[in-house]
Design brief:
Blueprint (H helix, E strand, L loop, with lengths): L10 H12 L10 H9 L18 E2 L1 H15 L5 H14 L4 H4 L3 H4 L11 H6 L6 H5 L1 E2 L2 H14 L14 H16 L5 H8 L9 E9 L3 E11 L4 E10 L4 E11 L3 E8 L2 E10 L2 E8 L6 E8 L4 E6 L2 E3 L3 E9 L5 E2 L4 E9 L3 E8 L6 E7 L2 E9 L4 E5 L2 E5 L12 E2 L1 E7 L5 E7 L2 E6 L2 H5 L2 H4 L1 E3 L5 E4 L16 E11 L2 E12 L10
Parallel strand pairs: 12-18, 20-28
Antiparallel strand pairs: 1-2, 3-4, 3-10, 4-5, 5-6, 6-7, 7-8, 8-9, 9-10, 11-13, 13-16, 14-17, 15-16, 17-18, 19-22, 21-26, 22-23, 24-27, 25-26, 27-28
Helix pairs in contact: 1-3, 3-4, 9-10
């Protein structure tokens, strides 16, 4: 790529800039992608037989993956490229050298910024690759063996201290990477995969996503929400978006913005919700959208999102999703094309239909006192959807996520704090003795020292504050704290305690929270 001297830009600022680019539609003034490749990239990437370019033509990546490659050219090699050209290039490369939906299954948590996910890769991949970045970053790209080997060489050339770090100095990392990891990665994540060719051959038209979508969501620390997202085509696979909804407590969830579609299914949006800038990272599959929305400046403050196009028929959610035996409660069914009689299985009676439309049915239910504990299949006419949990007593409370990381910040600096956000999940036991998830319950929250060292260092006092009613943990300020031993910072090792009331009986669950230092490097794929 064309290289020139340029003013320095911190990796953090550039990460924010490129993320904004990814979620914004392309400008009409942008150059053609082929012209950009020829005039900007061919300075370093040589043309090949068949019209390809060295290195570039031998990789497939997500939009975020291509964005990170271009950003690396900027920060490490002095590339100068306009935001418009960068948008165009990412769009073109993701569309022509992207990943099929099946190739992102199981690792979308990285794209959706679910940063407290505990990954499950084989031990070798975790130790050789996952010790520095997520294993998902590896799994979200495709290369032939030669390109995987070049990536290994790049790692050692760019970070020469790599071999002296933990899980590297105890082994011949470079030799293992070349001789064992390269063949493994080439086999597991090959450039040529029939799934991608098949997807390109049946690529749906972006315009089919235009219309009204019923959606359901859940925000930890706030609760469930539902509403309608209206989408109108804006040309070049981009859209105008309007959102109108509300939380279960009645507070609004309204806003508007724009979105763009990559690779035929990768939806990326920028939406301002009640004055708060939020990102949308969804997978569009037929008449369904699913993924996560999160604040642009605080990706930990995000909500699960699932939507169905109103021209289709689908039952998305039951809110709330549980009912105690011998009690009555109101529940709301969220979906599209809802028609017919709702049914909640044996032992659950519909007492009253309070409200009914194709997108929303509000009912009053009663569970028999002797209703068997367990999951009930919910149907509306011929539609089958999520389950309703019927329980008599709560057997166990779990804190979700079980392991979490929060980060100190601010304190006079520009790096924001990263909160910890938790839900209390109630679990029951079925008639077969097997555990089943009842749902998210209101809880009272607190933190305690995780171990004796944390107690000695008074981590509860300094690391931050837990909001008792919401399960939201606010970390302390960054920087040295003269009140602490050796004026260290406000990091801490904490146990998160949730107490749930079940008919006057308090049940508790515990999770682990590490409060650590600021996140200096915040790439689109962690």
């Amino acid at each position: 790529m064309k290289r020139t001297l340029r003013a320095g830009m911190s990796s953090g600022l550039l990460a924010l800039a490129v993320c904004a680019v990814l979620h914004s539609p392309p400008s009409l003034a942008a150059r053609d992608a082929q012209a950009i490749l020829k005039e900007t990239c061919q300075g370093c990437h040589t043309p090949e037989t068949g019209g390809g370019l060295s290195r570039i033509s031998h990789q497939r990546k997500t939009p975020e993956g291509w964005l990170m490659s271009i950003a690396r050219m900027q920060t490490m090699h002095g590339l100068q490229i306009s935001d418009d050209d960068r948008r165009t290039l990412v769009k073109y490369l993701a569309d022509t050298q992207g990943l099929a939906p099946s190739e992102t299954d199981g690792v979308r948590y990285a794209l959706e910024r679910r940063l407290n996910t505990v990954e499950k890769f084989d031990e070798q991949t975790s130790q050789m690759c996952g010790r520095c970045h997520s294993g998902a970053r590896v799994a979200l790209q495709r290369r032939p063996a030669q390109e995987w080997e070049r990536l290994v060489n790049f790692h050692l050339g760019q970070w020469p201290s790599l071999e002296y770090q933990a899980l590297s100095r105890d082994r011949d990392w470079f030799d293992l990477a070349r001789k064992e990891m390269v063949p493994l990665l080439a086999k597991r994540y090959p450039l040529d995969n029939p799934a991608w060719a098949k997807w390109l051959g049946s690529l749906p038209k972006a315009e089919t996503l235009a219309g009204d979508w019923s959606f359901s969501g859940h925000l930890p620390g706030k609760g469930e929400l539902a509403g309608v997202m209206s989408v109108s085509a804006d040309g070049n696979d981009s859209f105008k978006v309007s959102v109108k909804g509300q939380y279960a407590d009645g507070s609004p969830f309204n806003g508007e913005g724009s979105a763009i579609l990559y690779s035929g299914y990768e939806w990326r949006g920028n939406v301002s919700i009640d004055g708060m800038s939020m990102r949308q990272v969804f997978a569009a599959k037929g008449d369904a959208l699913q993924g996560r929305m999160f604040e642009a400046e605080h990706d930990e403050r995000g909500l699960d999102f699932v939507a169905a196009k109103q021209s289709s028929s689908r039952l998305l959610a039951v809110q709330p999703g549980y009912l105690k035996a011998g009690s009555e409660t109101e529940v709301t069914l969220i979906g599209s094309g809802l028609s017919g009689k709702p049914s909640f299985g044996k032992g659950v009676e519909v007492l009253e239909t309070i409200e009914q439309s194709p997108q929303r049915i509000k009912l009053k239910l009663k569970a028999a006192a002797n209703a068997q504990p367990g999951l009930r299949n919910v149907t509306v006419g011929t539609l089958k959807g999520p389950t309703l949990s019927v329980y008599s007593t709560i057997a166990e409370v779990k804190v979700v996520p079980e392991f979490s990381v929060a980060r100190i910040g601010e304190g006079g600096g520009s790096t924001p704090k990263v909160q910890g956000r938790f839900d209390a999940e109630a679990w029951g036991k079925g008639t077969d003795g097997k555990p089943y998830r009842i749902g998210v319950f209101p809880a009272q929250w607190k933190v305690e020292a995780f171990d004796e060292r944390a107690k000695e260092d008074e981590d509860v006092k300094f690391a931050g504050t837990m909001q008792a009613d919401s399960g939201v943990f606010i970390p302390g300020d960054a920087g040295p704290n003269p009140q602490r031993k050796m004026s260290t910072n406000n990091a801490g090792n904490l146990k998160v305690i949730a107490a749930v009331d079940d008919a006057g009986k308090s049940l508790t669950g515990a999770g682990h929270l590490i409060v650590t230092v600021q996140r200096w490097n915040n790439p689109p794929i962690p």
